[in-house]
Design goal:
263 residues, alpha+beta
């Protein structure tokens, strides 16, 4: 079954993640396919791209996060399919597989640019458009040789040149949650569901305890870096939005265009 691997990796008595038992959602006529990107601070910070297809979320872990610069080819490691209801999950995984803090960094709809998605996935060349709060326009996932193994290989996530492409770092320009206004990892950690903490608090000792201490320290450091006030660009959309990146991203601010002559 599509979610067997997802369930095998998790103990749902220890994690607030959905178990995939919810009834499949009923698609509204004309409703688009759902996508999301979850920013996951675990043993390593990474971003999880999820595309709704055939009732589940096809998933890729993107270590450096998506880039809207067409010159960047971001490694995307395909992972197990996730249940549809996972797409809006935000919170703390207290222990076990994926222990850490999950932020809903972006969400919206996606549209295939190929006539047959399953065939494109088998061939390893999926072209699509995104319409999210932060990520928009034309993209491609291209399977690579090496890195991956078995049925879950490695891919490259590439932004096509269009009006939504630009030379800024979108993960730095718009680092916050689209689910909880202006929330970063520390805020999510502080406001996580009380019942989760009372039934499954993060481990305080052993390898998991040490991991969580590093995660918390990193989250605090990331918040401190943003709070210290870096110099904003002199002009352009990034300059106008600096200091309120989450709101600007949700408004769909277009990034600066690339200068001519840059490859």
């Amino acid at each position: 079954m599509a979610l067997d691997e997802y369930r095998r990796k998790r103990d749902f008595s220890q994690t607030p993640e959905p178990d995939g038992s919810a009834s499949p959602r009923k698609k509204r006529v004309g409703a688009g396919l759902f996508f999301s990107v979850q920013k996951h601070l675990a043993s390593h910070l990474h971003y999880d791209l999820r595309l709704e297809w055939n009732g589940v979320l096809l998933s890729w872990a993107v270590p450096k996060g998506p880039s809207i610069d067409p010159a960047d080819k971001r490694l995307a490691m395909q992972t197990e399919d996730h249940p549809y209801e996972y797409g809006t999950f935000e919170g703390v995984i207290p222990q076990g597989y994926g222990a850490g803090i999950v932020m809903l960094w972006d969400r919206g709809t996606w549209t295939p640019q190929v006539p047959d998605v399953d065939t494109a996935l088998r061939k390893g060349d999926l072209k699509f458009t995104l319409d999210g709060y932060k990520l928009k326009g034309s993209w491609a996932l291209v399977r690579t040789r090496g890195f991956g193994s078995g049925s879950k290989p490695s891919w490259l996530l590439i932004k096509h040149r269009d009006e939504w492409a630009g030379p800024i770092d979108i993960t730095e320009f718009a680092p916050l949650s689209v689910k909880t206004p202006d929330a970063d990892f520390v805020d999510i950690l502080a406001t996580d569901s009380p019942e989760v903490w009372s039934t499954n608090p993060p481990a305080k000792s052993g390898d998991t305890g040490r991991l969580f201490q590093r995660i918390i320290a990193q989250a605090v450091a990331m918040k401190g870096t943003r709070s210290s006030g870096r110099t904003a660009p002199a002009s352009g959309p990034a300059a106008r939005a600096k200091g309120r990146p989450a709101k600007t991203a949700s408004e769909g601010a277009r990034p600066p265009r690339r200068r001519k002559g840059r490859s």
